[in-house]
# Entry
Amino acid sequence: DQQVKQNSPSLRVQEGRISILNCDYTNSMFDYFLWYKKYPAEGPTFLISISSIKDKNEDGRFTVFLNKSAKHLSLHIVPSQPGDSAVYFCAASDGNNRLAFGKGNQVVVIP
Amino acid sequence: DTGVSQDPRHKITKRGQNVTFRCDPISEHNRLYWYRQTLGQGPEFLTYFQNEAQLEKSRLLSDRFSAERPKGSFSTLEIQRTEQGDSAMYLCASSFRSSSGNTIYFGEGSWLTVV
# Structure
């Protein structure tokens, strides 16, 4: 049962433009959400997180938005850079000790 | 480098052999996790330690898998009698829980290929 879903598995975006990645979840007990970035043959790298008491968190070029009523979050990358080309994973926690991950979105930033 | 360290990074083994992976977490982190990732999937939780105690195991962790964290520092994950379906990236992660949430930090992973 996939509790965290990332549709639109790949995204191509021009350098300098905005990348928007979407994530939907089904478990209303999730209260902490994270985005990870992964290059091939490497482990996921933490990017940004958001607690369910917030609806927005920003860190440099990365902003995460949370819509609890819709059980939806998104990651915005502005401006996109070639080094952002990677797979991005959405993850969620319900306060227990495991994270539930989506299947990932491939982002390709075109110079 | 003070990140999560995993060894070996790559392992090719014949079916039926045993393999062991080691993980050294970030030094001040008391929580350690093992995840597994296969192609096209996100990481899947295997097991979790708080200090030396193994507190949670996924049903993905069959009897052939065993993990230890004997002194609450490094951890090992052993797979006995490997099968081709065990081929995956095995990810170790660590965290130190804060009031703002439990962010876990991953190592670079150990690739296992069973031939």
